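Renewal narrative, Specific Aim 1. Our central claim is that a sequence can be written position by position from structural information alone. The example that follows is taken directly from our test logs and has not been curated for this report. It begins with the structure tokens describing the chain, in the order in which they were read.
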């Protein structure tokens, strides 16, 4: 394909004439109706329409090659299919394996400290501890979603961040490619938390050995946080985008056409409060995060709960019910979903292998939780009496681990819960 290159062609596209009445070609009738004149505007449109398709596919025009439009359509069709892939995990905040309420005491002391996970795959960073509490919101949500993240200010006048870090096996293949990021956001009724910013960030240190607390200095309102970097570390990709003044209605915000650096080992999504003057009780809502290939944002597609849970389970999984916090039973017994082990005559041990599907990102750290309320932490218990004994964890790997223990107790079925973490 090539543009007209005859000696009579002009070097720049002429301005189009004023629109006429749309119609159709006619060969005309001698002495009655003149044949249709093919003017410059029509010819230029016929030339530029396919050329723009070819160029958008990244193909340089070559005179005498007559397959470029076909090739461009194939490339763009494949690109459109890829645009349905959302590289953000848990993008509409469905999955909260640590519990759907995260604050200074729930599910445990310090659960909303700086540099901790709240919603699955989203790290809370804040200028100090106990700056905001987090909950899975089920009422004030973007159109098309059933959940969102709600952050409520607990300590005034402090900035906070939601950060997601993608693993190297996902990030490295994206080097040199164009990507775009979008999000839905709004505030609560208070008008003091109105400013947000977002960015993509790149880690060029050792792959998957990231510094999750990526903020070195928070800086003042209107100034982007300084990222951790000393020869290697985190860096902004392009310029962070100010989301404007948030209102009490959800609005879409986006960054488009960012090129992923060639030294990127881990890619991060950074969304933060830019207000230095917030009030206790201020609310921020986030939803429908989309990170996709391409220079423009496409519509958000809600994934199934099953797909999102499985994606998150590469990094965190538990035996408890999905929305139940993985802590020792308190107030009421919690045997639902627990690992079960059977002991024959004493002193035979219990040794249960727990299989992990899908496999975890790396060998997990496993903690155990007691099922029977009031019993010692991390102990095997049974439903029919208050007997218990200590449990042990061994042979942790990406696809399994073992829970064992031994006690001078005969028979019965014993149960225990676990939480396995393989997060970056």
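The sequence written for that structure reads:
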């Amino acid at each position: 394909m090539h543009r007209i290159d005859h000696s009579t062609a002009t070097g720049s596209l002429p301005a189009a004439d004023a629109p006429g009445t749309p119609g159709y070609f006619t060969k005309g009738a001698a002495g009655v109706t003149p044949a249709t004149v093919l003017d410059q505007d029509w010819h230029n449109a016929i030339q530029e329409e396919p050329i723009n398709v070819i160029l958008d596919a990244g193909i340089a025009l070559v005179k005498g090659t007559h397959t470029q439009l076909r090739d461009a359509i194939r490339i763009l069709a494949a690109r459109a299919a890829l645009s349905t892939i959302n590289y953000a995990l848990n993008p509409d905040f469905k999955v909260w394996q640590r519990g759907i309420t995260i604050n200074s005491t729930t599910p445990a002391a310090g659960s909303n400290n700086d540099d901790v996970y709240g919603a699955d795959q989203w790290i809370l960073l804040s200028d100090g501890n106990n700056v905001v509490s987090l909950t899975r919101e089920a009422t004030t949500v973007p159109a098309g979603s059933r959940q969102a993240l709600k952050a409520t200010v607990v300590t005034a006048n402090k900035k906070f961040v939601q950060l997601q870090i993608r693993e190297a096996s996902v990030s490295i293949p994206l080097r040199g490619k164009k990507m775009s990021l979008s999000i839905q956001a709004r505030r609560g009724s208070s008008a003091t938390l109105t400013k947000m910013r977002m960015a993509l960030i790149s880690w060029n240190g050792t792959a998957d050995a990231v510094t999750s607390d990526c903020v070195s200095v928070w800086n003042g309102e209107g100034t982007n946080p300084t990222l951790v970097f000393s020869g290697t570390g985190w860096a902004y990709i392009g310029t962070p985008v100010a989301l404007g003044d948030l209102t009490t209605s959800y609005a879409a915000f986006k960054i488009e056409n960012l090129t992923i650096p060639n030294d990127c080992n881990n890619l991060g999504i950074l969304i933060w409060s830019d207000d230095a003057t917030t009030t206790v009780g201020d609310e921020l809502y986030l939803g429908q995060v989309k990170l996709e290939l391409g220079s423009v944002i496409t519509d958000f597609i809600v994934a199934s709960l099953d797909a999102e849970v499985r994606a998150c389970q590469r990094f965190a999984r538990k035996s408890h019910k999905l929305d139940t916090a993985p802590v020792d039973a308190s107030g009421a017994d919690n045997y639902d979903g627990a690992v079960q082990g059977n002991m024959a005559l004493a002193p035979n041990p219990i040794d249960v292998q727990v299989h992990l599907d899908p496999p975890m990102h790396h060998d997990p750290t496993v903690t155990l939780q007691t099922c029977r309320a009031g019993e010692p932490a991390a102990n095997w218990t049974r439903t029919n009496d208050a007997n218990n004994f200590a449990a042990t964890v061994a042979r942790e790997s990406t696809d399994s681990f073992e829970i064992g223990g031994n006690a001078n107790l005969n028979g019965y079925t014993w149960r225990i819960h676990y939480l396995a973490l393989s997060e970056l």
